[in-house]
Write a structure and sequence with these properties.
single chain, mainly beta, Jelly Rolls, 5-stranded antiparallel β-sheet, 3-stranded antiparallel β-sheet, 1 helix, 10 strands, about 5% helix, Cupin_2, Cupin, RmlC_Cupin_sf
Length: about 130
């Protein structure tokens, strides 16, 4: 048996993100899924770009605030305590709208935990 307790706030935020992103899979010893906690101020987006994953399925559980997720068909509003799931090859861009009342906090889980399967998506190419 094995157990790990991770103090999320002790995990240094990733320096390459447009908002606060704490990558928790490594400190948690997880190898079957990626797990990140995002905190985005109004006007900040979670991912580096509008994108899709070739093989990874993603789930965004909103802990606080409201998350906007832009897709080619529409923009979804995901309130606190709701889950938004994105299948592989489904373009999306998750963000906190610039007119939001405050920050949004999101737990994002991706499986399998692939590092380089994100593909930039440009809706103008459709």
């Amino acid at each position: 048996m094995g157990y790990r307790l991770v103090d999320v706030d002790s995990v240094e935020p990733a320096s390459d993100r447009p908002c606060e992103c704490r990558k928790l899979a490594g400190p948690g010893g997880l190898d079957a899924a990626a797990i990140n906690r995002f905190r985005a101020a109004p006007g900040e987006q979670l991912p580096l770009a509008y994108h899709y994953h070739e093989t990874q399925q993603e789930a965004f559980y909103v802990l606080e605030g409201s998350l906007a997720v832009e897709t080619p068909d529409r923009t979804y509003e995901v309130p606190a305590d709701d889950l938004f799931v994105v299948d592989p090859e489904s373009p999306q861009r998750a963000y906190n709208p610039s007119d939001a009342d405050g920050a949004v906090t999101v737990l994002a889980i991706g499986a399998p935990p692939v590092a380089d399967d994100a593909v930039a998506y440009d809706p103008d190419d459709e």
